[in-house]
Amino acid sequence: MKILFLHKWLIMGGIERILVNYLSILQDEKNLHIDILIDYDKENNVFHRLIPSGMNVDYLFNNHYCSYKENLYSERNKNWLKKIKYKFFNFKEKMVKRKSLMDYVSKGKYDIIINFSNHFDSYIIFEELTCPVIRWQHLAIDNNIREKDIKILNKYHKVITICEDMKKQLIDFIPSDKIEVLFNPIEVNKVLKLSNESIPVEYEFGYLVQVARLDKIKRHSDLITIFSRLVNSGRKEKLLIIGGGPEFHNLKNLINDLGLRESCYLLGEIENPYPYIKNAKLFLHTSEREGLPTVLLESIILNTPVVAMDCPTGPREILDNGRCGELVEMGNKEEFIYKTLVLLEEQEKINYYKNNMNIHIKKFSEFEIKRKFLSLIYQMTGINNEKI
């Protein structure tokens, strides 16, 4: 069976890590030929080297193109001419992208296509396809979802949600028989092995950790404000924030403004964050919108207790309604501070969560998720797995 995965880029991010995890658990399936078509070959496409050998990766736009586009974007507000130039450049890119994508698909003669996020939604010409197309939905549905987006979702043969709560949201917009739930696969043994690597000696102290792309939606500013209160209450732990993104400088300024330069560290992108998670006292999560946050699953695997804002989908399902970690009402900083302080003081409660975590994580086994995924694609293509 020939499968084509589509995605935007391979930078350090949660969705990209999930994509690589899927590719990794599928690499020993000899009956599958997998191609990956990525839109942008960015300089920081760190996950490219983690794609299993034997899988073909192509890019629509090379690194030189991406650098040129980023330069146009950064200068677009300098004058009206640069703004028009950037808009024209974007318009031209969309035309080229649609044609290049459909030419690639046509030449590949694929049995099934998997659009791993919403990035290629408006570039796929469904009427020209002769194979089924799956769309992954990684984030909770926004209340302000556009009619245009609903129409596009309905064009897909299947939409994969990554938790049950997200499926319940989607049923309001597309037929239930088009929706399947597949949890994010985690290679448990790989995570455990990587977690045994050492961390820099300067971080071998009591610390709290957070791992996420530095976007506003992750609410790192709330986390830093909460941490400031913890420091003011007398706690000596440091806070390590792992991840890169557009909010880096704003967060750095906030850290300086709150006098936290010696206790709160922005470490940037780290390819292997697992030793940092494993050795942390707690994993803190303040995001306002998620799908099924992989880092919380990884924290459970590594036996690191979690305090998380109860955003619409993800944390509650992963933390088993509060039996595997602390859930906090969305946006309630006072409750977050209180529950963090309690966990830092009460070893008995930490032991309770750890015992539950060891049982609950089996629900997210990569073997079960792989079985469900293979069953789905063979059913959709009508190919008999036993005869291949």
Commentary on this structure:
Helix content is 41%, strand content 16%. The chain is α/β, with parallel strands linked by helices and 388 residues long. The chain folds into 2 domains: 2-185 and 365-387, Glycogen Phosphorylase B (Rossmann fold), CATH 3.40.50; 188-363, Glycogen Phosphorylase B (Rossmann fold), CATH 3.40.50.2000. The strands form 2 sheets. A 7-stranded parallel sheet has the order 3-2-1-4-5-6-7. A 6-stranded parallel sheet has the order 10-9-8-11-12-13, sandwiched between helices. β5 (133-137), α4 and β6 (158-161) form a beta-alpha-beta unit. α7 (220-232) packs across α12 (333-345). The longest helix has 29 residues, at 80-108. It is globular and about 65 Å long. 35% of the residues are buried. The model has no long low-confidence stretch (mean pLDDT 93).
Provide a concise account of the structure shown.
With 388 residues, the protein is α/β, with parallel strands linked by helices.
CATH class bucket of the largest domain: Alpha Beta
Low-confidence stretches: none
Order of helices and strands: EHEEHHEEHEHEHEHEHEHEHEHEHHH
Number of domains: 2
Q: Overall pLDDT, averaged? A: 93
Beta-strand content estimate: 15-25%
Strand order of the largest sheet: 3-2-1-4-5-6-7
CATH architecture of the largest domain: 3-Layer(aba) Sandwich
Return Rg in Å: 22 Å
- How far do the termini sit from each other? 9 Å
Strand element count: 13
Shape: globular
The CATH superfamily of the largest domain is Glycogen Phosphorylase B
